[in-house]
Amino acid sequence: MKLIYEKSQAGRRASALPRYENLPSPPELPEELRRSEPPRLAEVPEFELVRHFTELSTRNFGVDTGFYPLGSCTMKYNPRINERLAALPGFARLHPLQDEDGAQGALELMWRLQEILAEVTGLHAVSLQPAAGSQGELTGLLLVRAYFAARGEAEQRRTVVIPDTAHGTNPASVTMAGYELTPVRTDARGNIDVDDLRGKVDEHTAALMLTNPSTVGLFDENIEEIERIFHGVGALMYYDGANLNAVCGISRPGDMGFDIVHINLHKTFSQPHGGGGPGGGPVAVRESLEPFLPVPAVVQQDEGRFGLEYDRPQTIGKVRGFTGPFGVFVRSYAFLRMWGPRLREMSEVAVLNANYVLARLKEAYDLPFDRLCMHEFVLSARTLKREHGCTALDVAKRLMDYSFHPPTIYFPLIVPEALMIEPTETEAKETLDAFCDAMLAIVREAGEEPELLKEAPHHRPVKRLDEVRAAKRPVVKYGFEEHPDAKGEPKVAAAEAPKGV
Amino acid sequence: MAAAESYPDDLKYHEEHDWARVEGEEAVLGITWFAGDALGELVHFEPLEVGSSVTRGQSYGEVESVKAVSDVVAPLSGEVLEVNQAVVDAPETVNEDPYGTGWLIRIRLSDPNEPGALLDADAYRQLLADQ
Q1: Which strand ranges, in their side-by-side order, compose the sheet holding B12-14?
Q2: What's the pTM value of the predicted model, to 2 decimals?
């Protein structure tokens, strides 16, 4: 379709804004700050504008258009009531610098959300400030640093242990927090290899970072032994809440022995994501770590009154502006209050759905760890690759022809040709069956007509993208032929700019 | 154009999918066809500097594809004599010719006995078949 700039005709206008009257004239901008010519904007009438963006929206795919089993991402349905509540003027029009007397409702909502998250994680105190899972991780590791610094062990504690199945953000956060990474292997049942672990944990260990259930969708059967190993040497345990959707109301990280947990509000608690956010990555901690949490802390001052507390001398400081992404808190709070004491059912159905899909697919694909799964599972397309030359990527592309979002592929890295599938609790059995039917049909197609997979997708607006060229030579802006960029965009890049795909 | 699968008999192999061609007191190192195929077309090779040292079993650089960034593990220890600039300039050379023009670095061996501990081509093929 054409870009909005290609539909532009000089002089066409959408609705005209009324002029302000009786306002003081704005101060004159210094000459050097003024534009020499007006900005280049597309000129289209209103109906053209509406058609353009409506058509664009039909090229999109999201939870609102179809099944989205993107493993590890928990792409559940985001109830519309969340949006209505977040849009209430008392929430939406609140200024972050509003005085506390005028923001009691918002402060109370944050405090109540903290209390719920503390209960769900089995820990003592919560900071809502981190704005994403990755920032929650970094915040958690900065808490680890502050904790050991306060004990005089900052020099001694140098390493953080991470299993080889971990999300890539884990090692990145460890490095950013100034620690050294100690990877640990996964055993044949998909648990941490405890023998490998024992040799790697000592008085220099600061912490373990673990996702449980792990990225292969399995609950670590040795978690109590792992807890003894780490706490036995005085190290801390960090829980990556990426897969919290599997265990809410069933088991709590705090009870497993974890000291710090980050929660992804955009996964587990229905903040919309997939378009880049905004996310929410609150951190929950044991009592001994509370003094180090970010400021301001949202606290209950006395019965019925809430406020912001800055006087925390051992705090790691702010990790984000003001008190964090507030609209996200409203949506997650609404979602949690709707489930209420039945939150356990959410996780039970998520696990049930995953096991149903697994049971239907495990004969047709390779299954690296043959156990009951949690909320997601990992299959492998290695037999398809060996026998028919069809890879996990080909399966994923072909699924798009069946109108499903592909699962996560090639992750975790320890499983070759990985297909990581997470149906979430949202979906009905009919949807799960239709997805399974498609996955099974694709296996048959691989045997009968492998080109169908290798050239897929056949029924989508764009075919396979040239990801290598996109990585090597990204063209991130439109090249106006008659209006070349003053800074000298390379000619070839302008010629390659997409026009009317 | 990606090369066809092969594991030449005159090379030594490390289980992390790296190869070494031992030439007297020196060795040329690279990654195997299997590693290149698993990663897909390489878009970046981040080498270390000439004169630095590499240690058997430790990472000496990174290769990056659209799929992943991966450490390159040294099959042998030694001092870096030369880095293949052709691969730095055009990383896809590794996919096109993994054992020829797609070599990564040349080292002077620090321990002449180390190559004895590496796998021969048959043993490496068996390792791939078992995976």
Answers
A1: B12-14, B18-23, B26-31, B105-109, B78-83, B53-54
A2: 0.87
